[in-house]
Design brief:
- With about 300 residues, the chain is mainly α.
- The protein is about 80% helix and about 0% strand.
- Strand 1 and strand 2 form a beta hairpin.
- The chain starts with a helix and ends with a helix.
Length: about 300
């Protein structure tokens, strides 16, 4: 990996972390304050973001050619990876946002790096102790940020049904990331992102007619949905997938630990959720793990 590739990959990962962090803040506002159903939010964010990216892709002959280059076998992979990594993952996250704090909801992005590392290790049958140590350090830092670990130890009392949804979000995201690596290397991050978003939109769209779901009804809600679609969906999904071409999976995974950190800052700024000294200590651990892993590569 060249120095230039590392810089490009880290910039993409930083943009992804910022975008994904805003998901939990915007999602909390939409589910709690505006009363929009998580299923509807999952559908709208990918329908809007996927449609916008499709228009961009189809605007040129080269783009249309790249979109059509997917083989039948690859289409089957996209047909299941898309719903798993987009609609199902988003539904789990928004259900978590509706039941726990924004910072706790970002637990999905603290668990995901460890799961990505584990799935990748199983797939490649290779594991590096130093990489694992950095991931664990970042994971502990993320737990401090989310107050799962506090001054009294492991805060099991802070777990709830919402955390089960958060765990589901982490598992589905790890599967989406590791399962899509070969498709990204073959067709590029933009094509993979577009097709998986469209597949996820179709999958969750099939569910909508069978439930009484709450849709956005106010100008504020639709403004937040627009921000969710572009700032918290299109931007982070594409940059995360693009970063896979420049960074090893272990380093990319560590950068995801910044998502709870950024979520903490955004939740404090926009939702008034307070922070503690232990959360700041967790932030330092996340920064340390990312710095060490970056130097190693």
């Amino acid at each position: 990996m060249t120095h230039a590739a590392k810089i490009i990959g880290l910039i993409l990962a930083a943009l992804s972390a910022l975008g994904f962090a805003s998901t939990f803040v915007i999602g909390s506002a939409l589910t709690r304050e505006c009363g929009v159903s998580p299923v509807v939010l999952s559908f709208l964010r990918f329908a809007i973001a996927g449609s916008a990216m499709t228009l961009v892709a189809c605007a040129t002959r080269r783009g249309r050619s790249r979109m059509a280059a997917i083989t039948a076998k690859e289409a089957v992979s996209i047909a299941w990876l898309g719903p798993v990594g987009t609609s199902i993952m988003a539904w789990c996250v928004f259900m978590g946002c509706a039941h726990v704090s924004s910072v706790n909801a970002s637990m999905a992005d603290a668990l995901a790096p460890l799961l990505i590392f584990a799935f990748a290790a199983i797939r490649t049958r290779r594991i590096a102790g130093a990489d694992l140590a950095c991931l664990v350090c970042g994971f502990v830092g993320a737990l401090l940020v989310m107050q799962i670990i506090d001054s009294r130890g492991l805060a099991l009392r802070s777990f709830s049904a919402g955390d089960l949804y958060v765990l589901g979000g982490a598992v589905t995201w790890a599967v989406y990331t590791v399962g899509g690596t070969s498709l990204i290397l073959r067709h590029g991050s933009f094509v993979y992102t577009v097709w998986t978003m469209l597949a996820g939109t179709v999958a969750i769209g099939l569910v909508l007619p069978f439930g009484d779901f709450a849709w956005p009804t106010t100008a504020k809600a639709w403004l937040l949905v627009t921000a969710l679609s572009f700032v918290a969906t299109l931007l982070p999904f594409w940059t995360w997938n693009a970063a896979q071409k420049f960074l090893p999976m272990s380093l990319l995974g560590v950068t995801a630990y910044f998502i709870p950190v950024v979520t903490l800052a955004l939740a404090f700024a926009f939702l008034g959720e307070p922070s503690t000294m232990l959360q700041l200590l967790g932030t330092l651990l996340v920064i340390a793990s990312a710095t060490i892993e970056t130097r190693r590569h």
